[in-house]
Design a protein that fits this description.
Pfam families: 7tm_6
Radius of gyration: 25 Å
Organism: Ooceraea biroi (Clonal raider ant)
Structural class: mainly alpha
Oligomer: single chain
Number of helices: 12
GO molecular function: odorant binding; olfactory receptor activity
Membrane topology: Multi-pass membrane protein
Order of helices and strands: HHHHHHHHHHHH
Subcellular location: Cell membrane; Membrane
């Protein structure tokens, strides 16, 4: 069994892209490297800040009273700000995440039998499949985005307009209209938009697989507890050996709890921002599509498909978080049920009472939170969709 190979299998897609973005928390890297600013990270941050987000904020101010234009600009800013926040937080907590990845690598290296490894591989495969779906939606969004903007660039160049339009209009300290300044600036802005989709997919997949790995560890721990109780009930081990192994299980359980808290502490604040922006994002994208259909606006099919894939991608992101967090919550509470369902009734009263340490520690479920205002779950997913549709109704009422 090759632990590094298994780790690369689990984090295959997110590992490659996070490395290219300069924020991959490599467990094999030296600690000194994490105190240096990675050049790839600096380049991406500069492109996003100066060629995407600043122009978008300027366009909101210049949109005036055009509601449709304001909604389109805010939706674009939301998506960009989400990506920038996730990238920065991943870089800022890189040392903590490296410690966490080292723990994950250790889990693969110290798996005691094929059953534990198969459980981890099962969840790793599930995470890979969900990540792959996320990247598929991101790739579709990326393709429509590239085609739409290359089409505009071609029209601007071929028509030889006096005022050529950029992807995101902004007054740069150089002559944008002059060739090749225009083409270079346009392509940099397109690359910035591409980075947004890559960042969102990569960070979301990274968090998703981390949470599912913790789920696998909880299942392995529950099975180990059940086997331990069975061994004592069958008199295969002594009471002192049972207490020793139970203490190891309790310590392992505490270690998993600390790891989940590390994940939550790193991303909780940015996920609060994410939930708020995703709610408005879904609302704004749906409003744009609804307005185009009801007002019979003449737009290209390419832009329509882009808007639809945009909305689908945002919903897919939210679902990934809620699905993995719901699974974690279920498995963490399942530790208490595991202690209850084993053959504790065949143990001596003193040995059976020792199981209560596991039960008490499992009463508080492990959660991924959005700040201190909400917990990711399928209930949150439904509530967010309902809230977004409520905002949509209000916007349509104001528009009429």
């Amino acid at each position: 069994m090759n632990a590094k190979k298994d780790l690369n299998y689990a984090f295959a897609l997110s590992r490659r892209w996070l490395w290219l973005l300069g924020v991959w928390p490599d467990p094999n890297a030296s600690v000194s490297n994490f105190h240096r600013l990675n050049m790839r990270f600096i380049i991406v941050m500069c492109i996003l800040s100066f060629y995407v987000i600043m122009p978008q904020l300027r366009n909101i101010i210049c949109a005036g009273g055009n509601i449709g234009r304001i909604v389109e600009c805010i939706a674009s800013v939301n998506f960009s700000f989400m990506a920038l926040s996730k990238l920065y937080v991943t870089w800022y907590h890189n040392e903590t995440l490296r410690t966490l990845m080292t723990s994950v690598l250790t889990d693969w290296m110290t798996s005691r039998n094929s059953r534990e490894r198969n459980t981890m591989l099962k969840f790793a495969k599930s995470g890979r499949n969900l990540s792959f779906q996320c990247y598929i939606y991101g790739t579709i969004l990326f393709m429509f985005y590239i085609l739409l903007n290359l089409q505009r660039m071609y029209q601007n160049i071929m028509l030889q307009q006096q005022q050529r339009k950029l992807v995101y209009h902004f007054n740069y300290p150089y002559n944008v209209q002059k060739r090749p300044n225009y083409e270079i600036t346009y392509l940099i802005q397109i690359s910035g938009g591409t980075y947004l989709a890559v960042i969102n997919c990569s960070v979301d997949s990274f968090i998703l697989i981390l949470l599912l790995h913790m789920c696998a560890q909880l299942i392995n721990l529950r099975v180990a507890l059940n086997d331990l109780v069975n061994d004592l009930a069958n008199h295969s081990i002594s009471s002192s050996k049972f207490k020793e192994c139970l203490a190891a299980i309790a310590m392992r359980h505490e270690h998993i709890i600390r790891n989940v808290k590390m994940i939550n502490d790193c991303y909780s604040t940015v996920l609060l921002i994410y939930v708020l922006t995703a709610t408005f994002q879904i609302c704004f994208e749906t409003f744009q599509v609804f307005t185009i259909i009801t007002d019979h606006l003449e737009i290209s099919a390419l832009k329509m498909f882009f808007l639809l894939s945009y909305a689908t991608f945002v919903i897919m992101q939210l679902y990934l978080y809620c699905h993995s967090a719901e699974k974690l919550l279920t498995e963490s509470v399942g530790m208490a049920y595991g202690a209850y369902e084993c053959k504790w009734y065949e143990l001596s009263p003193n040995d059976a009472k020792n199981l209560m340490f596991i039960v008490y520690r499992s009463k508080i479920p492990l959660q991924l939170t959005a700040g201190k205002f909400g917990t990711f779950s399928m209930e949150m997913f439904i509530m967010t969709m309902k809230t977004a549709m409520g905002y949509l109704s209000a916007m349509l009422a104001m528009r009429n």
